[in-house]
Amino acid sequence: MFGVVRRRVASGGTSSLLGQSGLKIRSGTARVSSVVEKEVAFSSGGCGNIRNFCHTTPGRWINSKPIRDIFYQEASIQTQRHSFSSESGDSVDVVVPPLAESIEDGTLAKFLKRVGDRVNIDEPIAQIETDKVTIDVTSPESGVIVKLLANEGDTVEPGHKIAIISRSADATTHVAPSETAPEKPAPKPTQNVSEPEEKKAPKVETTKTEKPKAPAPQSSPSEPQLPPKERERRVPMTRLRKRVATRLKDSQNTFAMLTTFNEVDMTNLMKLRADYKDAFVEKHGVKLGLMSGFIKAAVNALQNQPIINAVIDGDDIIYRDYIDISIAVGTPKGLVVPVIRNADTMNFADIEKQINAFAKKANAGTLSIDEMAGGTLTISNGGVYGSLLSTPIINPPQSAILGMHSIVSRPMVVGGNVVPRPMMYTALTYDHRIIDGREAVFFLRRIKDIVEDPRRLLLDI
């Protein structure tokens, strides 16, 4: 339609054509100058309004110019249709999806597909590593990857193009990696041709030059003999590792941390587990572990000592009337801390199911940021790795962290007799700015009493 208007006007069409086409020209001023700008509004139902469509000059109706305006409604429709891709004919651009509100960029950890590989819609193509989680970049369309626009290790932001997919290409016809292969052996024949000349040159030089002397050792006997640099490797830190390092150092610089210890006799809790583990699995479909017992004990202890569940915010103390327990989980990529929400409303089975689900997600690297945000108390079980005793570091913005350790059979005095007992050391690191030693010791003692006699949970004593 635009082409018809331009041809008719340029050939001297009258204003009746403009009236039929729905074009209205409004003069911005009554004076005549060399070029007087006019505003043309095209009121079609499909494209919306377009401003500054053309300019008018004296003696002519319209000074024809190329249409360079962008149809904003059309562009917005395309954007909404492909939120994570941009189309250009047969090709589709793969872009980084939105990461999270608090995360502005990420690191392109690795490509799961290469040039020439065929991908299906929603199939993962690459992985973006952020400060907390690893996010998959999926294919917006089915097709063949024809080009990679980013390298592994690059810092990318939401909307950044990382690959191009062709809908109609055949995976067997794309030989982009092999096309670059002949380029490498190409210079080899030239090197072979020049080899005789290169060989002759050193021969002439060897006849004229003397044999180089061995350099004298410069290091003194007092200097330490360091290993050669060839035996060292420098590997950049992952974003998750850098984030963990930053948070732990901030915690050490912010909190007035103090750790108190106690030991727990695990006999009764282990007996409870052994007696009912089969019936527990049969009814709930999940194994009964020791962690659920400690979480129930920690919930009861927090209800008795609410200051442990509080946190400092500026000059105020925030008392939280809910209990969210964070579980520290070690993965090959680093430490993650998913949160069990409203643990005070859950029973043993609910807690075990949640722990099992978090463990699977942590190992697969699919934990979301929401699942790791918040928390009022962290429990770290170093005993699964054989740790006998440790002083855990507080996980901000919490005020305390409970450390569990390995169970070791030790001689204990029971009823005046020395008997072997399965014992565990427990540690509570707390922020001494808000928690006094009295509350910290009472909290840890309450956990000891419940674990050693789980019947206290039933009787609420």
TrEMBL record:
It catalyses: N(6)-[(R)-dihydrolipoyl]-L-lysyl-[protein] + succinyl-CoA = N(6)-[(R)-S(8)-succinyldihydrolipoyl]-L-lysyl-[protein] + CoA. It is an enzyme of class 2 (transferase). It comes from Cicer arietinum. Keywords: Acyltransferase, Lipoyl, Mitochondrion, Transferase, Transit peptide, Tricarboxylic acid cycle. Residues 169-237 are annotated as: Disordered. This is dihydrolipoyllysine-residue succinyltransferase. Its cofactor is (R)-lipoate. It is found in: Mitochondrion. GO terms for molecular function: dihydrolipoyllysine-residue succinyltransferase activity. Forms a 24-polypeptide structural core with octahedral symmetry. Belongs to the 2-oxoacid dehydrogenase family. Its EC number is 2.3.1.61. Residues 91-166 form the Lipoyl-binding domain. Pathway: Amino-acid degradation; L-lysine degradation via saccharopine pathway; glutaryl-CoA from L-lysine: step 6/6. Residues 196-213 have a biased composition (Basic and acidic residues). One of its GO terms (biological process) is tricarboxylic acid cycle. Transmembrane segments: none annotated. The keyword Transferase applies. GO terms for cellular component: mitochondrion; oxoglutarate dehydrogenase complex. The 2-oxoglutarate dehydrogenase complex catalyzes the overall conversion of 2-oxoglutarate to succinyl-CoA and CO(2). It contains multiple copies of three enzymatic components: 2-oxoglutarate dehydrogenase (E1), dihydrolipoamide succinyltransferase (E2) and lipoamide dehydrogenase (E3).
